[in-house]
Design brief:
With 227 residues, this protein is of the alpha/beta class. The chain has helices at residues 10-22, 33-42, 59-68, 84-93, 105-118, 152-163, 171-179, 189-202; strands spanning 2-6, 26-30, 47-51, 75-79, 97-100, 127-129, 132-135, 140-143, 146-147, 168-169, 210-213, 217-220. Helices cover 41% and strands 21% of the residues.
């Protein structure tokens, strides 16, 4: 089994690689995001250990580009201590697991063995509603041949609406699944973000995909399914 460690702390990267070799694995080390990305794209690995804070290209961007290139090698991300948001962002971008620094080497090896047993995941489905395509893994959105640039929150909201296309979803449902079940801010935030989406996915194309259902919520209209 071949593993890639992308970590800019050379001492840590080499120690992990040496330990994995002693466990019977083949291990390569890359010390910056650019080299790690190149190796991940052009060489075959069974698991990638990826630090978030890297020179040249961040770990987030490395992961994003790997998934956008349909590289589904399992990725374990190394996050900062108490990096709660780091962990959430890593999983949102397509990481398979994470480990906070400092970590136990024994736990790292156990996590890597678990990923090996699980194997590379199948390519996630692309969600569609007529000519609107939403790729959850690549975090990409297209209307026909046109790419649409969305913020993280806009993308999450659109993904939720497309997964429930042709259904009426309430503000409460949206707040629970897109924000947080304990959200206690202004519920008008939903209307604001629906407006943002309409200006990006509908208005430029002369469409009215997202409907307001008075007194009930919103509905994204469109046939199609998951590819």
């Amino acid at each position: 089994m071949r593993m890639l460690i992308i970590e800019d702390e050379r001492g840590l990267a080499d120690a992990i690689a040496d330990g994995l070799v002693a466990e019977g694995f083949v291990a390569d080390a890359a010390y910056d995001g650019g080299d790690g990305l190149w190796r991940g794209l052009h060489e075959q690995y069974d698991v990638i250990v990826l630090d978030i804070m890297l020179p040249n290209i961040s770990g987030y961007e490395v992961l994003k580009r790997l998934r956008a290139a349909s590289v589904w090698t399992p990725v374990l991300m190394l996050t900062a201590k108490d990096g709660e948001y780091d962990e959430a962002d890593a999983l949102d971008l397509g990481a398979d697991d994470y480990l906070s620094k400092p970590f136990s080497y024994v736990v790292l090896v156990a996590r890597l063995r678990a990923l090996l047993r699980r194997g590379a995941p199948a390519r996630p489905a692309v969600l569609t509603a007529n000519d609107l395509c939403v790729d959850p893994a690549g975090r990409r959105c297209r209307r026909g041949e046109h790419d649409i640039d969305l913020t993280t929150r806009e993308f999450t909201l659109l993904e939720y609406l497309v997964r429930h296309r042709d259904e009426v979803v309430s503000k409460t449902d949206i707040l629970t699944h897109v924000w947080d079940e304990h959200f206690d801010g202004d519920t008008n935030i939903v209307e604001v973000y629906v407006g943002y989406l309409r200006r990006k996915i509908d208005a430029p194309f002369g469409r009215r995909t997202i409907e307001t259902v008075r007194g009930a919520g919103y509905r994204l209209r469109g046939g199609g399914g998951d590819k």
